Amino acid sequence: MKVGDQYIHEFQFTQDQVQGFADVTGDNNPVHLDADYAATTMFKRPIVHGMLGASLFSKVFGTIFPGEGTIYLNQSLNFMKPMYVEEAYQAVFEVKEVNAEKHRAIITTTILNAEGKAAVTGEATLMNTAVIV
């Protein structure tokens, strides 16, 4: 892993996944679960929980990039635009900094909507003794 390395992961969420996230976390805000309620909001339809969207970062870090053995140390998040079910998104990761001695990397984390606009931005600090050297 070196500065400038990138990885892009395409994904979308279903309403069942949003409901599952609500079940696990207890966040039953109707803006996520009730289409009639959401229609009365500025979003006009249910939105994906921000933390569900950002949880995609954990999946990628722990299983794909950098992968198995990764320990999540820190994550900043900025929620820029709403995310909706059944819409295509890209999670974009770029290695910003590497500290080989400590086996750590700082990686920018961005979720882009279909128009290429950032829905979520942030930065993660990871440790992986096998890959970050």
Write the SSE topology.
Layout: E1 6-11, H1 15-25, H2 30-33, H3 35-39, H4 50-63, E2 71-79, E3 89-99, E4 104-112, E5 118-127
Antiparallel strand pairs: 1-3, 2-5, 3-4, 4-5
Word description of this protein:
This protein is α+β, with helices and mostly antiparallel strands. The chain has a domain of 87 residues: Thiol Ester Dehydrase, Chain A (Roll). The chain contains four helices and five strands, in the order βααααββββ. Strands 1-3-4-5-2 form a five-stranded antiparallel sheet, covered by helices on one side. A hairpin with a 5-residue loop joins strand 4 and strand 5. The longest helix has 14 residues. The chain is elongated.
Give the end-to-end Cα distance, rounded to a whole number of Å. Answer: 7 Å
Question: CATH class of one domain, anyone?
Answer: Alpha Beta
- Average predicted confidence as pLDDT: 96
Radius of gyration: 16 Å
At CATH level 3, the topology of one domain is Thiol Ester Dehydrase, Chain A
Class based on secondary structure composition and strand pairing = alpha+beta
* Large-scale geometry: elongated
Could you give the count of β-strands? 5
**CATH superfamily of one domain, called what?**
Hotdog Thioesterase
Largest sheet features:
5 strands, antiparallel
What's the short story on this structure?
By secondary structure, the protein is of the alpha+beta class. The chain has helices at residues 15-25, 30-33, 35-39, 50-63, and strands spanning 6-11, 71-79, 89-99, 104-112, 118-127. It has a domain at 6-12 and 48-127: Hotdog Thioesterase (Thiol Ester Dehydrase, Chain A).
